[in-house]
Amino acid sequence: MAKVKITGHASGSGVLTITAPNTSTNRTVTLPDSTGTLLDTTSGLDATKLSGNLPALSGASLTNIPPQGRKNIIINGDFRTNQYGLTASTVAVTNGAFNIDRAKNYLVGLSGTVALGDAEAVNGTYETPLKYTAGSTASGRIGLYQTVEDYHLGETLTASAWVKSDNANARIVAYDGSTTTSSNTHTGGGGWELLKVTFSQRTNASQLYIWTAIISATVGSVSVASGDYIFITKFQCERGSVATEFERLTNAEQLSLCQRYYYLHATKEGGAHPIGSAAFQSTNFADFNLHFPTTMRTKPTLQYVSGTDYYTVYANDQLDHFSDFATRNTSPNAAQIYTNGGMGTGIAAGHAGVCYTRNVNAFMAFTAEL
Question: For 26, how many CA atoms within 13 A lie in the half-sphere containing its CB?
């Protein structure tokens, strides 16, 4: 018969007490046939000691589980979709304008430039950040913001971004139409730092703006010196109180999301880009229909650059150049465009042809941005 032996410790002076529970049922405790230490509520459990099959787990009582599906309600937070054609060459910043998809410039009290930064490692992944640089010394604000269309009334949200700056007022600020909430500020040390802010959307909030910029905690002006910069990447806002890893979408998914707000139909990159098939309704007057690849947020506004003979229609074995367009009818899904001025070769009604750009600066786009 095996025996049970309880051995004291030669150096200890405490008394160990084995206490029976309040039960009227006989119980048997079987000891393991091995040498080791019994596990209790204060013991650590080494993962290497786990073996065998775990029991089935139910998620019914689990908490703090991130929502499933697409989590980032910021669109194009890594700036990979670039229908506007921003490059590493700096361009002057205009407040409220766009130089890259869904990143609206914010510039007050200063001059400044924006450009794409060099690709570099940011928290384990290579990113091409957006870079804003102040061009003057003043009390002001510089950076970007996004107007979020899906702003989750009554929910807790967390915004985050990786930021590099030499100004200690670089931060994220969320505003729901009534309350501003600020993130931690960048140290201003010139390295990459994670900024994040958790806030609660009011149940009757009418909007959600999220800035990543050199600004005050209340979206006011701060001291900015000429040459101060802010690099931004991995811009994200998600449900819950935890800033998780940045959600990377495929290029196709992200482009489709961006085209809800801005659609580049004919690019600026060189001449002779097709616009559409044109039909002459009368002499020197042609129109054509365009269908958008994504349903846009609302009826969009036509954008193009006007210039002498920037565009042409080839019909009836002739080229007829012109300078301007106008819209006849638009919807979130399509637009009817017609030539507006400059035609004069006498192509008669009933002929059909092809319209395209013929100047390196010519382009056509449609915007339904917030």
Answer: 0
